[in-house]
Amino acid sequence: MTNPLSTRHRYGLALLLTLALPLLAQANEPLPSWHDGAAKKSIIEFVQAVTDQSSKDFVKPAERIAVFDNDGTLWSEQPAYFELLFAFDEVKRNAPQHPEWKTTQPFKAVLENDHQALAAAGMEGLLKIFGATHTGMTTEAFDDYAKTWLSQARHPKTGKPYTEMIFQPMLEMLDYLRSQDFKTYIVSGGDTAFMRAFAEKVYGIPPEQVIGTTFVTAFQLKDGQPSILRTAKLAHNDDGPGKPESIDAVIGRRPILAFGNSDGDLQMLQWTAAGSGKRLMGLVHHTDAKREWAYDRQSSVGKLDKALDQAKNNGWTIVDMAADWRRIYPFEPAAPEQVQ
Amino acid sequence: MTNPLSTRHRYGLALLLTLALPLLAQANEPLPSWHDGAAKKSIIEFVQAVTDQSSKDFVKPAERIAVFDNDGTLWSEQPAYFELLFAFDEVKRNAPQHPEWKTTQPFKAVLENDHQALAAAGMEGLLKIFGATHTGMTTEAFDDYAKTWLSQARHPKTGKPYTEMIFQPMLEMLDYLRSQDFKTYIVSGGDTAFMRAFAEKVYGIPPEQVIGTTFVTAFQLKDGQPSILRTAKLAHNDDGPGKPESIDAVIGRRPILAFGNSDGDLQMLQWTAAGSGKRLMGLVHHTDAKREWAYDRQSSVGKLDKALDQAKNNGWTIVDMAADWRRIYPFEPAAPEQVQ
C-alpha cells in the first residue's frame, strides 16, 4: 500500500487549503452585507466587548437583550406602512359584505383610493379602518387573514412579496447577535399579531419575542369551545413612550442594544442608553433613493428628526443605508466592497 | 511499563460500576420528591411522548410552552396571598408618612389588624391598599421594596422566609421540563413586578417569562433621566379569563401544559386543553393539613370547586399533596417511598 499523501497529493491539499481558507474566513465573518465602515465596526466592537468574559463590559447571556423596531428598521415602510396597505386591501376584500362603506368615510376613501379624503380622516379614520379589519374576530382567524395577505400581496414598486422587502444587513445582525447568545426582540408600532404572522419565518423571531400595539381581547366559551376575541378597544399603543413601557411590562429587563429608524424610537433608545454598563443605540438612516428610499426630517412616514439630532449628539450608531450597506434586500446582488 | 488495567484493577472497576450505576440512575430519575403514583406517571408519560421524535405526539422544542399559576401552585398561599401580606406590611412601614391612614379605611383596618373591617372593605378596599403600596413609584423602586421585604419578612406559621415556602416537587417539575427543552412560564394573579422580584432566583424563571397582573405605566424624563412610573390604574387583571388573554398577548402560542390550583386557573386550563395534539392539564389539590393546609371548595383563598369538577370529568391530572408528594418544602426531609 502506498502512502496516499504522496508529494503530489500533498501539494494538491496545500493548494486547496490556500484557496479555501480565505473563503472560509469570509463565510464566518459577521455582517458580510455591511461595508467595512464605522457602523459595522461599532456593532462588532460592542458585541465582542459584552461577550468577552475577561472584559470589564461583559454581560451575562441572560441579560443580552436586543430590541429592534420593525417598520423602516427591519423592512421597508414606503410608500406607506405595509400593515396599512394590508388594512386597505382587507377593506376592499370585505366591501361586498359592507355596502354601507360605499358612502361612509373613511371606507369610501379607501375603496376609491382617495388619498386626500383619507388624509382628512386622520388618526380617527385610521383607527376605524384598523377596527374594521383587525378586530371583531378570534386571534386565530386574524392570523389566517394576515398570513393569506402576506403570501399573496405584492409591493407596488418592486412587485415582490412584502416579506422579501426585508433588510439583508439587519437579518445578518440578528443572526450575529443570536449566535452570541443575545435574545432578539421586535418592539414596534405594528399590531403584535400582524407581526407574529411572519416574524418567526422571516426574521427567526418567535411570537413571544414580538412586542407591538395591542387590542383588548376577550376569552369566550362557545359550545364548550374556548377562543380569544379581538375587540376594537386599543390596549397599548406601542410607539414613542409606549416602547419602553412595553419593554418593561413584557421583558422586565432593560435592553443593552436598541435599533430604530424614527422619532417613534427615541424613548426606547433613551431608555436603553440610560442603563449602566456598555450599550449600543443605533438608527437606520434611509439615505438610498436609488436602491430603497431617501427620507428623514420631513417624511410623513418614519419621520426622523429629533432622534437624529440626539444620535449625533450622543455618539449613537447611525447607519447610512447608501454608504454602509452592500445590499438592501436579500433578492439583490451585493455591491463590491468599497475601497476605504 | 505495566498495563494499568491489571486483572485486579479491572475487577475493582467492575465493582465500582456495579455500585455506582443504580445511584446514577436514581440521581437522573426525574421528580424524586413525588411518590410513584398516577400524577407522577402522567407527567413523565406526557413529557416522554412530546419529546420523542418518533412519537406521533412529538412537539417541536419551540412549541413546548408550559404555564404555571404561582399562588398555591408553586408556593403556599395561606393564611393569605403572600403578596397581600407584603402590602399590609408596606402600609405599616409607610404609616408614619401618612397620619391620615390612622382614621381612613381600609388603612385603619390594616394598622389595627382588624380583619372584620378589612373584609368589609372588599375588593375596592384591596385595590386602595395595592394602589398605595404597589404604585406611585418607578419600577426600579418597587423592585427594591419587594426584594427588601422578601429578604426580611417571615411566615407567621413556619417562621421561614416566604421564598422558602415553595413546593419542592414543583421545582423538580420545572427543572425536568426545562431539561426537556420546555419554556416554563408563570401566569398568575400576582403583580408581575412582585413575582419578578424572586422568580428567577427561586424558580429559575426569568422576568420575561413571568406574566401577571399589571398596572398602567408611564415613561417619564426628569432632568434627562428616563424612568418608568407605576400608576394606580389597573392595566390587566391576570385571573380567570385574564390568563388565556395574557398568554395570547404575551406568548402568542397556546401552551401544551398548564398547572393551577384554583377556579382562577380554569380558563387557562380550558384554553390549553382545547389545542390540538397531546396536552397535560394539572391541578395541585391542597389536601395536607399536617404538612401544609387542606382546603378546596369552601376556601376564600384559592377556592377550588368548578375546576376540580372539570378536572375529574376530563381526566386532568389531580395532584393530591398528601398522597403524591414525599415532601412539600425544600427545607423538610423527604418521606420514605410508599409501598404501592
Task: Explain what the structure shows.
In chain A, strands 2-5-4-3-1-6-7-8 form an eight-stranded mixed beta sheet, with helices on both faces. Chain A has twelve helices and eight strands. Chain A starts with 6 loop residues before the first helix and ends in a 16-residue tail after the last helix. Chain A has a domain of 205 residues: Rossmann fold. Chain A is α/β, with parallel strands linked by helices. In chain A, α3 crosses α5. The interface between A and B is medium-sized, with 33 and 33 residues.
Kindly list the characteristics that best describe this protein:
HAD-like_SerB (chains A, B), magnesium (chains A, B), 8-stranded mixed beta sheet, signal (chains A, B), 340 residues, amino-acid biosynthesis (chains A, B), hydrolase (chains A, B), Rossmann fold
